[in-house]
C-alpha cells in the first residue's frame, strides 16, 4: 500500500488527497470524538475500544497532517489533550455529511440514533445540499469533474520558479 | 477488527455506521470513480492501480451494502457494469465535502487540481456550509450531539413487537 499512498498524497484530485489524510475508519471516528469533546488518549481509547498502538499511530498521523494539535491539559495536570486545528475544524462539513447519509440510509424506521442539534434551538441542522452558483441543487448527473491536463502542473511549477 | 466492525454497524451513531460502510480509502475512491462514469472492473482497476482481489472484495461489499448495483453492459456485450443505487447516489454530498476540504487545505497556492463543475454553467459548485434550521452557519462550537439514552433502543424494539 506504500506506493499507492504516496500517489494519493500527490494526486491532482482533491478527493484522493482528502481520502489519503482521513479516509480510514479510525481516523474518522477519532475526529468525530474530538468534535464531541473527547480529547485525551485514555478517553479516546475507551470510546473507540481501539488498541493503544493503533490509536497512537493514528493520532500521530493526524497531528503530523495538521488536523489535530496537542496542548497541555486544561486542568493543569501533566496530561496533554488533542484539539482540532482550523484545518481539522473544517472537517465538520464532512462529518455532518457522513451523519446525514447514515441517518437517511442506515437505520430502520423508528430505530433510535444520536442527533446533531444546534445549541440555540436544540433542533437538527438542515440537510446539506450541494448547489451550483445559482443555488440550484447539484448532483452527479448535472455536474462533472474537469481533470487537470497532463503536464500542466509541471509547467506551472516551472513558471513559478522562473 | 471483526468485533469492532460489528459494533460499528450496530452503533447508535450515524457517523459510525456510515464509516463502517464507506470509511476506507478504496471504497471512497471506487465510489468517486463510479460518480465519474468509470463503471467496469477493468477500468476501475486501471484507474485505482488496485490488486484484483482487493477491488473484487470492495465491490462485492459495496453491492452487498446496497451502494452499488450491477447491470448488463450498456454496449450489449457480456460484461457487466457497476452503477450507483439511490443510496449510493446520495453519497454525492460526502464526495463534494471531501473534495472541498481537499481543495481548501491540501494544495499549495497555484497548484492545479481537478474541479467539479455544473454542466450548465461550467462553474464550481458553491462551498457546502452546514446551517441550522434558521439558516445560520453551524459548526462544532454551536452544535452538539445528543446521544441515545442507554436502553432506549431495546425499549422501542419491545414496544414495536408488542
Detailed description of the structure:
The structure is a homodimer of 162-residue chains. Chain A is mainly alpha-helical and 162 residues long. The first copy, chain A, has a domain at 3-89: Orthogonal Bundle (Arc Repressor Mutant, subunit A), CATH 1.10.10. Chain A contains 8 helices and 4 strands. In chain A, strands 1-2 form a two-stranded antiparallel sheet. The first copy, chain A, is globular and about 55 Å long. Chain A starts with a helix and ends with a helix. Mean pLDDT of chain A is 90; it is low at 154-162.
What is the typical, i.e. mean, pLDDT of chain A?
Answer: 90
Ranges of chain A where pLDDT stays below 50 over 5 or more residues in a row are: 154-162
Determine the structural class of chain A based on helices, strands and strand pairing. mainly alpha
- Please compute the radius of gyration of chain A using only Cα atoms: 19 Å
Count, helices of chain A: 8
Biggest interchain interface, per-side counts: A-B, 84 and 84 residues
